Amino acid sequence: MNINKLLSSMTLEEKIGQMIQLPPRNFIIDSDTDVIGNEYDLGLDLDQIYTTGSILGIGSATEMKEIQTKYLESSRLKIPLIFMADIVHGYETIFPIPLALSCSWNEKLAFDTARISAVEAATSGIHVTFAPMADLSRDPRWGRVLEGFGEDTYLLSRFTESMVKGFQQNDVSLKGNIASCVKHFVGYGAPIAGRDYNTVDMSKLSLYQDYIGGYKSAIEAGAKLVMSSFNTFDGIPVTVNENLMVEVLREKLGFEGVTITDFDGLNQVIAHRVAENQREAAVLGVKAKIDIEMASTCYIDNIVQLISDQRISIKEIDEAVMRILRLKSQLGLFSNPFSFANEEDEKLLVRSSNHLENAKEIASECAVLLKNEKQILPLKEGLKIALIGPFATETKTNGAWSWRGNNYKNVTLFEALTTNGYNVDIIDYLNEQIEDQLSKVDVVICALGEHQDDSGEAKSKVNLELPDRQVKWIDFAKKSNKKVITVLYNGRPLVLNNIDNSDAILEAWFLGSKTNETIVDILTGKINPSGKLTMSFPRHVGQIPVYYNQLTTGRPRLDQSNPYTSFYLDCGNTPKYSFGFGLSYSNFIYGNILINKKYMTKKDTIQVSIDVKNTSSIGGYEIVQLYIRDEVSIIARPEKELKRYKKIWIDPNITETIQFTLSVKDLYYKNPKDESKIESGVFTILIGPNSTNLHSTKINFQ
Ligand code: GLC
Fold first, then answer.
1. Alpha helices in 413-545 (DSSP H)
2. HSE-up of 184 (CA within 13 Å, CB side)?
3. Ligand 1 atom closest to the CA of 57, numbered from 1
4. How many CB atoms lie within 10 A of CB 647?
5. Hey, whose CA ends up nearest to atom 7 of ligand 1?
6. Is residue 251 exposed (0-12), middle (13-18) or buried (19+ Cβ within 10 Å)?
7. Which atom in ligand 1 lies closest to the alpha carbon of residue 35?
8. Can you tell me which atom of ligand 1 is nearest the CA of 131?
9. How far apart are CA 150 and CA 159, in angstroms?
């Protein structure tokens, strides 16, 4: 298709139509996957509806074909629709939530998750996914931390890059590939007070040093679309922020693809009180080079008049429409409007046993063992277990943003335990005979957490503790001299002081379609847990934001007796569980760091190595982490920054030598002008199993 020729043959109304995305109900009523529900009527007439360029959300090949057919029959130029949807951590086979995925420290799992999700979604005719979410966040009050990959830019960049490659591979027109729309550009993960959609107020230093990295890596990996975020930045809604959407995204990062607002995002510029009405919002959107307006009508209702009033130019519209047509061409839609929508493939591939097995293998690396007193885990066979808590028989374990996943097909923890041969008593905490029941069991498992609908979009919280009605059974069981294992189901870091009485704590997150089978394989030792935290767990919500790569401050809390230092009267400074922390059933001992040179110039690389020995009789994965600290520089630098990690299997009683190569690129920092800077001086290299237990050595950069 010659898209230049096509563009020149389009009327202005047809061009503008390409710039709006509509929910499917405008074409088929009662779609079972309608993302919003029928109350959302945009008031468009049929002519306008049949010029639209893309659809938000469909759930089957039949639906896609029905809509595409109806549309093409009525479209003058037969420009096919693009179908986009939120395939965040699975289509119908659901994988661990992205925050759990990141705790595997194995970005190949992110690639595999995206790969299988794309294969399934493509059978239903979906062309674009609104994923990965590249938002860094240090604030677990924000309910969307589950959709991201934690608090560290280096790690989350590896994961966003892998997801984009998993969705797209090398050619989005090929069967089983879908285009990636990375979101939510930019800074959405840092809303003031952790309240979703709230103002974001950060320095350009923070933006370039921490928050932009994930989007940058996704764009470098070839993401075809970028979604703008709901928040303001420098007081301007990002969706109409020309500095960010044009100068930073398109000029500095070199993004040439399609930009799309978040849901109703352009219309919300009015609520931000940065546009008086939809007409003014439309002008700002065009100036910010926003190509597609999702689910609102600023463009379609105003651009014709704005052009005749010479407020915007037809050239600006042509540029936007050309980017959309180019995406449709890259997706192969002109030659094959139905792409690979195929009911037979759906039956064969969607939620196939192979995919479910893959989901279980991936989940096995994502849970984090936070506590295991006296090696109470793994469980011995044949134990009589008391199972207490809201997740004992819960099947809703897919986690948020898994709208096509069927929770009711999931196995409960009770079922997974009993099919593994355990004798399990479910204790209903309203039961009067609870003491009698507890006296007859060997161990108590408390299945606790937050409902999967309590995290995700618009799910901010100020209280991150588990409710008393859940945790009181831990203390109750301990009074009965029973060992207690607490399993946590949650979409965000929680404040866990009130489960300290547990003998073991397994952070299981929401692991998707195979959550409870995976948990039981870990509890019974079939899987040796290897996950490590990628977000700090605060001691108290008042500490937030608390994260590992903070600055030292001018009055660091080094001397507990000095009152004039940076600390709280009523809480420690450190998180309860730190970034990079996670236990294993193995035991890993670290040797000293060896480096091949003490002095380094811009031209050099440095070889760093460390021996790690598994002194246990259980083989397992260890995640070896390398951090650096720039001891003195023009801009205050973090106490430490993750620069490398390696996940390695170590057999019992074996020592492995882990090697890293560092170059000057690993020592640079970004200044507020986004320039990479370095000064000569001492750098400390730190290596260990987490961000607090580290061996170190120094090098001199000249
Ligand atoms: C939502 C979310 C965004 C999602 C979009 C489409 O408001 O913010 O992440 O992709 O709408 O469902």
1. 413-419, 434-439, 468-479, 515-523
2. 27
3. 12
4. 17
5. 263
6. exposed
7. 12
8. 10
9. 10
pLDDT tens-digit map of 205-259: 999 999 999 999 999 999 999 999 999 999 999 999 999 999 999 999 999 999 9
pLDDT at 653: 98
At residue 462, what are phi and psi to the nearest 5 degrees?
-105, -15
Pocket test for ligand 1, best of 264, 457, 459, 460 (most atoms within 8 A of CB): 457
- Residue 82 CA to ligand 1 centre (angstroms): 17
Query: What pLDDT was estimated at residue 431?
Result: 73
CA dist 563 → 252, 566, 571 (Å): 46, 9, 14
Q: Where are the beta strands (DSSP E) in 191-343?
A: 225-228, 232-233, 236-237, 258-260, 293-294
Phi, psi of 34 (to 5 degrees): -55, 125
Residues lining ligand 1, Cβ inside 6 A? 35, 86, 130, 183, 262-263, 457
Q: Whose CA is nearest to atom 1 of ligand 1?
A: 263
> Packing angle between helix 353-363 and helix 107-123, nearest 10 degrees?
160
Q: What is the pLDDT of residues 428-476, one digit of tens each?
A: 877 777 888 888 999 999 999 999 999 999 999 999 999 998 998 898 8
Q: Peptide bond preceding 672: is omega within 30 degrees of 0, i.e. cis?
A: no
Q: Which amino acid is at 224?
A: K
Given 139, 152, 210, 262, the catalytic residue: 262
In 10 A of CB 328, how many CB atoms?
23
Residue nearest to atom 6 of ligand 1 (CA): 263
Question: Which two structure tokens, joined as six digits, stand for 348?
Answer: 């064969």
In ligand 1, the atom with minimum distance to the C-alpha of 183 is: 9
Distance in Å from the first CA to the final CA of the chain = 56
Strand partners, 485: 445, 504
Write the CB contacts of 433 (distance below 8 Å, at least 6 apart in sequence). Answer: none
DSSP SS3 for 453:
helix
pLDDT digits (tens, 9 = 90+) for 352-361: 999 999 999 9
* Rounded Cα distance, 353 and 514, in Å: 11
Q: For residue 72, which of 51, 96, 87 has the smallest C-alpha distance? A: 51
Q: How far is 474 from 503, CA to CA, in rounded Å?
A: 10
Residue 588 β-bridge partners: 614
The model carries a pTM of 0.97
With a CB cutoff of 8 Å and minimum separation 6, the contacts of 571 are 539, 540, 542, 543
Going from the C-alpha of 326 to that of each of 6, 7, 71, 244, 282, the distances in angstroms are: 11, 11, 20, 23, 22
201 classed as catalytic: no
Q: What are phi and psi of 284, to 5 degrees?
A: -65, -35
Asked if 258 contacts 328 with a C-beta cutoff of 8 angstroms, the reply is no
CA distance 620 to 642: 22
> Rounded to the nearest whole angstrom, what is the distance from the C-alpha of residue 625 to the centroid of ligand 1?
34
**Strand arrangement of the beta sheet that strand 293-294 belongs to:** 258-260, 225-228, 179-185, 128-129, 82-85, 54-56, 20-22, 293-294
**CB neighbours of 315 closer than 8 A, spacing ≥ 6?**
none
112 alpha carbon – ligand 1 mean position (Å) = 23
